[in-house]
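User: Study the fold:
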Amino acid sequence: MEKKDIEKELSEKLEANYISFMKEWVKLEPLQLIEKAEEIAATKLVYEELKNGGYDKEHLAYLLRFKNPLEVVRDKWSEENGSEMVYDEDMRHALWSIADTRDAEQDYELDEAYLSPEQGVRMC
């Protein structure tokens, strides 16, 4: 099978997998959906990355063997790039940025109970 044929078939299969996941997600209650947010984000990321091919023919052909290759790759992606590895570093940077620039004080309501005496009461 030619690479372009493999890419086309895999793309169709991935789209069907993604649609199937979306149909399940819309049935969830809001709290269940929140609990699945990381899984949903990983699924979308992997789908977007793989749908247009561009990877080794052998790898793509191997994925065609699975009924739900999107789930297979998503689970591996999550296993190797789980929240501890990705979010910890990103969270540290976000917290540093907020504290360093202090721009958030202009955009978000402050809690008067935690203002230093020299800051006093501020109007937003």
Notes: Helices lie at 3-25, 30-35, 37-50, 57-63, 69-80, 83-101, 104-107. Residues 3-80 form one domain. The two ends are 64 Å apart (CA to CA).
